[in-house]
Amino acid sequence: MEQHHRDRFRSAGVEGETLDAVTWHRQVDTMPGWWHEHGNALYLADGASLPDKVLAELTVFPVSDALLAIGAPMDWLTSLLVGGDRATVFLDRRVVLTAGEVYCGADSQIVLHGPVVATRSAVLDARNGGSIVAQADQLWAAGVYVATDDMHRLADRRTGERLNPFGAHIRLGRHVWLCRDAVVTGHADVGDGAVVGMRSMVRGQKVPPHTAVAGAPARVVREDVEWSSDDLP
Q: Rounded to an integer, what distance in angstroms lies between the CA atom of residue 226 and that of residue 172?
C-alpha cells in the first residue's frame, strides 16, 4: 500500500498495527480506466473479495480520490456505494456484513476494525464529511442502522437553523453489542463493553462504558455489565 494511502487511513481512524498486519494489493485490472485516472484506489488483502455485482455498482458513479481497503471475503455484502469525492472506507479482516449495505459520501469515512459480526441487514451510512469508526469486537444483530445524518434537512422555520445532524461523527468502542434493530445516529460515542438494547436509539449521545441502554432516546438501564457472545447460564 502506498504510504500516502496508509497515512490517510490512519487519519480516518484506522489503527497502525491493523494496517501493518496485512499485505494489501491494489486492484488495477479489475477496475475501469477512469477509476485510476481520477485517483481512486481499491486495495484487497490476501483472500479478500467483493461480489461481482457490488464491484460493478461501485464504479457506476464517477468519483475522484476515493480510497477503499477490504480485508475479508465480502461474499454476502449487498452493496458498497461511494457517493462523492474523497470517500474513505476500511473494512478489516474478520468483518462479516451479511446482506449489509455500506454507503460513504464525499469527504466521509467508514472504518470497521475486525472482528465485526453483523448477523443480517446492517446499514452503514456516512455522509457530509461525517465518520463511523468501530473498534474491534463488534456484535450487531439483525437490522442495525448506523448513520451520521438523516439524509434530509430539518430546520427551524423562524431562524432557518438546521436542527438535525449534519456530518456527524460516530464512534463505537471495543466489544460493543448492538441488539436487533438498534439505531445509532448523529454525534454519538458508545463506550467499550456497552450494550444497546433492541429497537433502541442512540442519537447525539454518549453511552458510558459497560452499561446497558434502552429506549428512544436510549437511557442507562444497568451499569457495570459484561456481555459475552457465548450463550451460557
A: 16
C-alpha span between 149 and 199 (Å, rounded): 18
Q: How buried is 148 (Cβ within 10 angstroms: 0-12 exposed, 13-18 middle, 19+ buried)?
A: buried
Beta strands in 148-200 (DSSP E): 169-172, 176-178, 183-185, 188-190, 195-196
Q: Tell me the pLDDT tens digit for each residue of 155-171.
A: 999 999 999 999 999 99
Structural domain span for residue 142: 3-223
When divided into structural domains, the chain yields a total of 1
Whether 229 maps to a domain, the answer reads no
Q: What is the pLDDT of residues 122-162, one digit of tens each?
A: 999 999 999 999 999 999 999 999 999 999 999 999 999 99
Are the CB atoms for 203 and 212 separated by under 8 Å?
no
Q: Is pLDDT above 90 for 61?
A: no
